[in-house]
Automatic annotation (TrEMBL):
<dbReference type="Pfam" id="PF08279">
    <property type="entry name" value="HTH_11"/>
</dbReference>
<protein>
    <submittedName>
        <fullName>WYL domain-containing protein</fullName>
    </submittedName>
</protein>
<keyword id="KW-0804">Transcription</keyword>
<feature type="domain" description="HTH deoR-type">
    <location>
        <begin position="2"/>
        <end position="57"/>
    </location>
</feature>
<dbReference type="InterPro" id="IPR036388">
    <property type="entry name" value="WH-like_DNA-bd_sf"/>
</dbReference>
<dbReference type="InterPro" id="IPR057727">
    <property type="entry name" value="WCX_dom"/>
</dbReference>
<dbReference type="InterPro" id="IPR036390">
    <property type="entry name" value="WH_DNA-bd_sf"/>
</dbReference>
<dbReference type="Pfam" id="PF25583">
    <property type="entry name" value="WCX"/>
</dbReference>
<keyword id="KW-0805">Transcription regulation</keyword>
<dbReference type="InterPro" id="IPR028349">
    <property type="entry name" value="PafC-like"/>
</dbReference>
<dbReference type="InterPro" id="IPR026881">
    <property type="entry name" value="WYL_dom"/>
</dbReference>
<dbReference type="InterPro" id="IPR013196">
    <property type="entry name" value="HTH_11"/>
</dbReference>
<dbReference type="InterPro" id="IPR051534">
    <property type="entry name" value="CBASS_pafABC_assoc_protein"/>
</dbReference>
<dbReference type="InterPro" id="IPR001034">
    <property type="entry name" value="DeoR_HTH"/>
</dbReference>
<dbReference type="Pfam" id="PF13280">
    <property type="entry name" value="WYL"/>
</dbReference>
<dbReference type="GO" id="GO:0003700">
    <property type="term" value="F:DNA-binding transcription factor activity"/>
</dbReference>
Length: 314
């Protein structure tokens, strides 16, 4: 979101006497051209930011660094604090930061911002599932990422390993750490570690330089695609009754594709899972409204499951 990035740019300007466009680009992880446009946008919006020419020049706020959010418009303020209001279960430091931001707002915006904070309730878990709070180790990992420090993590039953943390990502109720193991090259694919499987995380007094070209959004997208490919390695062709198509597609999510109508009026769906057994187990509950036409191994596994049920409940 550009409003969020402009706010971050303003914070950078407030924290330093002067900043170059290149330094701001590195801080915001954007291109040099984008950083320049952001600085010009702040100036156009009435923020007293001015360029100073010369070798030692850059951009600075008139009057020096100070905490003042008066450059934000009311819609930007509402959008920002609505987003901040979704940080349920965040550490106390986050709540303190929100209070400081509120105090820094112009008085005319403050009341609306306070209402915006309380206007959103967010639960990541669907109905019938438990809503997971952010893991206890999350603040430790975020601090290590900000300080570019190595972290020793104890993961699962394995011995502790040292990693260079790159970022954290939330997928539904689960949190993941993207990191390079010590000794891995910068250009190798980062590994994913589930935070709820970590026994401990200890920040080590060792810094690690982050690749300036690293993009967390792109790295997470690639990691997600790899996981989805593994989850969808087994597939089946299914003919589904018209009234059940939307429900089945919703249940399988990204692992189901509507292939269009069949000659008999049903809809053909491609359904996937990480193994034949897992796929058959998921499809077994749809027997009244869906027929698996292939492949043979999925049909055979469904028949085996049916036999187990018959024997159990005879």
């Amino acid at each position: 979101m550009r409003a969020d990035r402009l706010l971050r740019a303003l914070f950078v300007l407030q924290s330093r006497e002067m900043v170059t466009a290149a330094e701001l680009a590195a801080e915001l992880e954007v291109s040099l051209a984008t950083a320049r446009r952001d600085l010009e946008a702040l100036a156009s919006a009435g923020v007293p930011v001015y360029p100073q020419r010369g070798r030692a020049g850059g951009w600075s706020l008139l009057g020096g660094a100070r905490t003042d959010l008066s450059g934000l418009t009311e819609p930007e303020t509402t959008a920002l604090f609505s987003l901040l209001g979704q940080t349920r279960g965040a550490p106390a430091e986050a709540a303190d930061a929100i209070r400081k931001l509120l105090r820094a707002l112009p008085a005319t915006f403050r009341e609306g911002a306070e209402r915006a904070i309380g206007s959103v309730v967010r639960e990541d878990a669907p109905w019938g599932e438990r809503d997971a709070t952010p893991p206890e180790l999350l603040p430790t990992l975020q601090l290590a990422i900000a300080q570019q420090r190595v972290v020793s993590i104890a993961y699962g039953d394995a011995d502790p390993v040292d990693v260079a943390p790159l970022g954290v990502a939330a997928k539904g109720p689960r949190w993941y750490l993207l990191a390079h193991r010590r000794g891995m090259g910068r250009h190798e694919q980062p590994r994913l570690y589930r935070l709820d499987r970590m026994r401990s995380a200890t920040v080590i007094d060792e810094t690690v330089a982050r690749d300036p070209a690293f993009n967390l959004d792109e790295a997470w997208r690639q990691a997600s695609e790899r996981i989805e490919a593994l989850r969808g390695s087994a597939s089946a062709t299914v003919r589904v009754e018209p009234h059940a198509v939307e429900a089945l597609l919703s249940r399988f999510g990204a692992q189901a594709t509507d292939l269009g109508p069949a000659p008999d009026g049903r809809t053909v769906v491609d359904a996937r899972a990480h193994t034949v057994q897992a796929l058959a187990e998921q499809l077994a509950g749809w027997a009244e409204v869906a027929e698996v036409t292939g492949p043979t191994e999925v049909r055979a596994e469904l028949a085996r499951l049916g036999g187990v049920l018959v024997e159990r409940y005879r």
